[in-house]
Structure prediction request, 256 residues.
Amino acid sequence: MLEAQRLGYVAGQTRLLSGVTAHFAAGAVTGLIGPNGAGKSTLLRLLAGLVAPTEGQVLCQGAPLSGLPVGERARAMAYMPQDVPPFPPMPVREVASLGRLAHGESAACALRHPAVQQALDMTGLAQFGTREASCLSGGERARLMLARALAVDAPILLADEPVAALDPAQALMVMQVLRGLAALGRCVVVVIHDLLLATRFCNTLMLLREGALQDVLPPADLTDARVRSIYGVTTRRVENGLVPWALSEPGQVAGD
Ligand SMILES: Nc1ncnc2c1ncn2[C@@H]1O[C@H](COP(=O)(O)OP(=O)(O)OP(=O)(O)O)[C@@H](O)[C@H]1O
Prediction:
């Protein structure tokens, strides 16, 4: 579905990424993990075509991404950035409907599109539809960025730290949504620091360090030795540790 071929990126005098070759499968959630500054967001931006690689190329459904017309690219891939920009003075539903711009719909058409309502439902924002987006809390704003990306309804979703600002219930809900999309055949690539959620919800983990892809492995193979070599920390499996595991009343999650 999505492929990186010997991807490299240099900004000014600084090399941010080198020699990344990887296949991102349809029907799977791929988790990009690695220390701060490893190059995860850079890789995601290259995959999204937001910046052009200085070496190598991205293939989207077999075709070079650089050759795809902008509109086609926008419909093929949805991207959720790590940083939430200041929202314009518009209601939540309208911000989510911006995802439909990729399809060339009029603003009125976009607002009514079922994908927008679905995106608000999936991110637990349905009850905030008419609220000013600029009034949302940090976690709600992050979910709105995800809702905008989900409203594109694209076969590929690239999400940069979608759960970093979320409470445990919302984080579980979002990871379940991502896994649900993968189950429908979508290609989902997510940058994530929470190793518990990453190992539980991702089908494949890609470990980045110092701008290079160090390893591609199933979550079960993320051993203490690997975590130590990547992050310089040791891990422990805590049998009676208290971790958020499931929503007590699915679909009944309160707002932030
Ligand atoms: N334009 C730039 N010029 C120079 N260095 C840059 C530029 N953009 C990013 N960097 C550096 O490149 C490295 C990789 O950045 P990137 O945002 O991809 O890391 P990351 O793995 O997503 O980190 P984090 O987990 O902290 O979000 C960082 O050290 C960053 O400071």
About this structure: Residues 11-12, 14, 16, 34, 36-42, 82 surround adenosine-5'-triphosphate (CB under 6 Å).
